[in-house]
Design goal:
Blueprint: E1 2-6, H1 13-24, E2 27-30, H2 31-40, H3 44-55, H4 61-72, E3 78-81, H5 87-92, E4 100-105, H6 108-116, E5 118-120, E6 127-129, H7 156-170, H8 172-179, E7 183-187, H9 192-212
Parallel strand pairs: 1-3, 1-4, 2-3, 4-7
Antiparallel strand pairs: 5-6
Helix pairs in contact: 1-9, 2-3
Bound molecules: BIS(adenosine)-5'-pentaphosphate (AP5) and magnesium ion.
BIS(adenosine)-5'-pentaphosphate is lined by residues 7, 9-15, 31-32, 35, 52-53, 56-59, 64, 82-83, 85, 89, 114-115, 117-118, 127-129, 132-133, 162, 191-192, 195.
């Protein structure tokens, strides 16, 4: 089963991926995390990637497409979180035969509040919200015990830019995947439990359909 999670910044792509990974053992492939790893390791491409992320712009395809393809390798049970983010990127993975595209639909004002209160662990893998999804011990990651931090691109100015990029580059993918009948829309403005219940239902139905084939 191959799933794409599509949605604006802060719509819950990472949160839902973590939940699906735990319950259904999906591999979580996050384009943002792959890119941040390069930045953290200060690799040659990491230094270039950093400038794009910090400006809220899309990292050029020559870097991101390759990193995602290496991460996918020959896997066949995964979630692509934040990839593709443009029609051009979608064309690069047409041969993968994606089974389901989940669009996380949530208004901008809600998402801005979520990002302002987001905290992530030092590894960047686990995300929290100070009010809606707090860690058990304040300031500490439940999963790996590292100190929680704010992402450098979660400033009001960069969030605004990320939204502009989403509208211009990523939103056209909604029609693109509607045409291939892969798109299912989730009301992602609800509470985390309610959103996940919707996602779980849609994913379970899709898995059943695939098994019957
Ligand atoms: P990326 O890391 O993917 O950032 P993003 O798309 O802006 O999305 P976020 O990670 O900010 O949000 P999310 O949807 O994962 O929400 P989360 O679950 O954390 O990409 C970063 C950058 O990398 C890009 O700007 C770009 O530069 C580059 N990049 C990435 N992919 C690329 C690509 N394909 N091509 C080129 N460049 C690329 O939730 C947010 C908060 O809300 C958390 O605090 C969470 O706890 C909380 N929350 C979640 N769900 C709920 C809920 N239902 N109710 C209340 N709170 C909730
Ligand atoms: Mg994320």
């Amino acid at each position: 089963m191959k799933i794409i999670l599509l949605g604006p910044p802060g719509s819950g792509k990472g949160t839902i991926s973590e939940q699906l990974e735990t319950e259904f053992k999906f591999q979580h492939i996050s384009a943002g995390e792959l890119l941040r790893e390069e930045v953290a390791h200060k690799t040659t491409i990491g230094k270039v990637i950093k400038t794009y992320i910090e400006a809220g712009n899309l990292v050029p395809d020559e870097f991101v497409v390759q990193l995602v393809k290496i991460a996918i390798n020959k896997k066949d049970h995964y979630i692509l979180d934040g990839f593709p983010r443009s029609i051009e990127q979608a064309k690069h993975i047409e041969d993968l035969h994606i089974n389901l595209v989940l669009l996380l639909d949530v208004p901008e004002n809600i998402v801005i509040e979520r990002l302002a209160n987001r905290r992530v662990c030092q590894t960047g893998v686990h995300g929290y919200h100070l009010k809606y999804l707090p860690p058990k011990k304040p300031g500490i990651c439940d999963a790996d015990g590292t100190t929680l931090i704010q992402r450098p691109d979660d400033t009001p100015q960069i969030i605004k830019k990320r939204f502009q990029v989403y509208h211009k580059e990523t939103q056209p993918l909604i029609d693109y995947y509607k045409k291939s009948h892969l798109l299912q829309t989730i009301n992602a403005a609800d509470t985390p439990d309610t959103v996940y219940a919707q996602v779980k239902k849609v994913v379970t139905e899709a898995m059943t359909r695939i098994e019957k084939r």
